[in-house]
Amino acid sequence: MENNMHLAIGDYVLVPDEHVHCYLRHGMITAIQNGMVTVQKGILQAVYPVAAVIKDTRPAGTQRTVFYDEPQEAPSALDIHGMRYEEAQQELEKYFDIVLLAGLKYCRIIHGKGTGTLRELVHAFCRSHPMIKSFSTAPYRTGNYGCTIVEMK
């Protein structure tokens, strides 16, 4: 994109969300290397091709418009167990965008027991997300430490 010819570290950009076919996330560029940009979005970071981001020229703190196609029906659970940390981060962001657009009140994140790294990622994400009211480990027979139940605001 012509708009992306002058991207620099510290620039604000809109990044795509292919699950809802929109530019839904706003973030700041923290690194640029080999045609890829690393974008900080809250506590999470993701890497995108330079061509996939849109430079946001509005000053920080101004109203941002979200463009989206038709909302999709959201599944009530996301299974990220077995994923790498970075992949799981991206899937969490995408999933919660869909959950919010679909208006779900509760959802489950299946992260597995393993080393606890993905559970820690999910819990950190839930603590920092402004639209999450509460979260807890699932009851014994429905996943226990391998699953987190999330209640949306």
List the helices and strands and how they pair.
Layout: E1 12-17, E2 22-33, E3 36-41, E4 44-49, E5 54-55, E6 77-79, H1 85-102, E7 106-110, H2 117-128, E8 132-137, E9 147-152
Parallel strand pairs: 6-7
Antiparallel strand pairs: 1-2, 1-5, 2-3, 3-4, 7-9, 8-9
Notes on the structure:
By secondary structure, this protein is an alpha+beta fold. It has 2 domains: about 1-55, SH3 type barrels (Roll), CATH 2.30.30; about 75-150, 2-Layer Sandwich (Ribosomal Protein S8, Chain: A, domain 1). The protein is built from 2 helices and 9 strands; from the N terminus they run ββββββαβαββ. The chain has a 5-stranded antiparallel beta sheet. Strands 6-7-9-8 form a 4-stranded mixed beta sheet, covered by helices on one side. β3 (about 35-40) and β4 (about 45-50) form a beta hairpin. It is elongated. The termini are far apart. The model is unreliable at about 20-25 (pLDDT under 50).
User: What is the strand content?
Assistant: 25-35%
H-E string: EEEEEEHEHEE
Rg, rounded, reads 16 Å
Largest sheet, spatial ordering of strands? 4-3-2-1-5
For the residues shown, what is the average pLDDT? 80
Count of runs of 4 or more consecutive helical residues: 2
CATH topology label of the largest domain: Ribosomal Protein S8, Chain: A, domain 1
How far apart are the first and last residues' alpha carbons, in Å?
Answer: 37 Å
Annotated CATH architecture of the largest domain: 2-Layer Sandwich
Our count of domains comes out at 2
Uncertain spans? 19-23
Outline type: elongated
By CATH reckoning, the class of the largest domain would read Alpha Beta
